[in-house]
Amino acid sequence: VQLQASGGGLVQPGGSLRLSCAASGSIFAINVMGWYRQAPGKQRELVATMISSGRTNYADSVKGRFTISRDSAKITVDLQMSALQPEDTAVYYCFLSQLGINHWGKGTLVTVSS
Fold it and tell me: How far from 17 is each of 7, 13, 25, 55, CA to CA, in Å?
């Protein structure tokens, strides 16, 4: 399984950004896709997940600001980020979990700064 993320960049506080992640390889019908992030000097933390049935989970810090979505074929996952704050600055990693194995993308940097 390979994951390719895109969409990171520099955005001003209050702005929006959309991350996308495309999965390829042996993808099974039942899986979890989502995003984690790691800020400088901090541990990697969960941002949002969506299981193949459509159920979502968000970190409290992003609820109401971020929206996760998957395409109909369920092999891409997007993260729409709004009302971005400097504390959202981090490297964002997409992941896919299936059959008890976690697969990670390389990460994309999001910088929120004026």
Answer: 7, 11, 27, 22
Q: Which residues contact 50 (CB under 8 A, 6 or more apart)?
A: 32, 33, 34, 56, 57, 68, 69, 70, 77
Question: Would the pLDDT of 74 be above 80?
Answer: no
Are 7 and 29 contacting, i.e. CB atoms less than 8 angstroms apart? no
Instruction: Calculate Rg over the CA atoms of the chain.
Output: 13
Instruction: Give the distance from CA 81 to its chain's centroid.
Output: 10
φ, ψ for residue 62, nearest 5 deg: -115, -5
Angle (CA) 13-19-23 rounded to 5° is 165
The Cβ-side half-sphere exposure at 94, using a 13 Å CA radius, reads: 28
> What confidence tier does 27 reach under pLDDT thresholds 50, 70, 90?
confident
